[in-house]
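From the shared-data thread, chain only:
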Amino acid sequence: MSLFSVNTNVGALAALQSLDYTQEAENQAQNEVSTGQKVSNASDNPAIYAIGNTINSNIAGLSAVSDSLNFGAQIVSTATSAVSSISTILQNLQTTVTDAGTSGFTLANLQQSVTADLAGINAYASDATFSGFNLLNPTGAATNPGSTQVNIVQNIGDLTPLQLNNQADVLDSSATQFTDALGLTNLSVLGVQNSNASASNIGANISFGSASTILTTFSTGTANTNQEFQLQTTSGGTTTDYNFEFIDTSAASSQLQSNVSATSKAIAVDFNSTTDSPNTIVAKLATTLESYGFGVVQQSDGSLNIVGNNLTGIQYGAVSAGTFTPTATVTSSTTTAQTDATSGVTLAGLSTAAAAVTTVQSAISDLNTVAVNLGALSQQITGIQNFTSALSSALTTGVGALTDADLAAESAQLSSLQTKQQLATQSLTIANQAPQILLTLFKNIS
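Structure, as tokens:
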């Protein structure tokens, strides 16, 4: 091929080819700089692109796993906060039921505190809801039931979920309130049933019947006969009788009839049958009982609840000239009422505050189990979260090593290519001028 041809400009063709290669390389460098990736599509490197695409899909899956774990962690955290509050209530509840075993406390007031604490426990459990999920409110609850089980994704390779079980159901699947699950149903310092049938620190509900029955019961009899409550206490193996005699001050000849000894006390309960109302008479009895260390609550219906002071026996009857004749007796913590048909007085056995204390302690133990379960779940979720985060970081680093561009190198490359582009352009300009030189050979030809 002649180097001096106007049909084929070899120099221009060479310069143009160089310019095309340089332009293509410059476009590739500019794409890597703008995207930050040396492999941004399959045409760049099919094998690396496929690997990177798979890894990026796994990273997206791990992000979804992380979201699920965060969701589960919040559900557990909400339940844990409620458990902490319930634990505080149980501590207060134990103090209350313990106080019920001490003479002089007003049991009705203590029972109000117990009732309020039980309501507070159920409220905390019911409110421990995050985005509609609750691990404390029993699923058998009539309103706002909890969640039998919450499943959260913990792995993209194995979709077996991490199960968050309802803790109330774990304790008692038949529970309808969290207090049921803790075994606190109907907890009362006034009448907690006790399976122990031995005569040990019993209590009694005493109902006096109608107003006419109270007045006739306490005021009838001769001058040498009084109605009496005999309370027996046992301490250090010694039994002491407290004989509370009703003395009608309107009867001039009324006087104490009980024998007095080291283990027997005669205590007057003064009243006036002509001026005192039935409730006044009962209130005077309650005041006298309290002055001797017994815990007494007068109910709205006029009945009394008597506990404490190591009470082991209660008898009601008449005393005359030192002889006491009981007509109704409670000798153990039985739930069977015994009635004196003559006087209309009803004695119903109750258990001691010790049973309530045992019940609350058992509830505390159950709550500790719940706290441990939730704590274990929280630790498990945190561990999986840490692993998921580390795995996601490792995959991100790995795919970056395969597909990310070295921008420092690309910057240098781009600068070099721009210089080459300028040189190729200049070379093409010179080559394009070569045919014009041939015109000089034919300048003088006419």
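Confidence is low (pLDDT under 50) at residues 191-202, 330-352.
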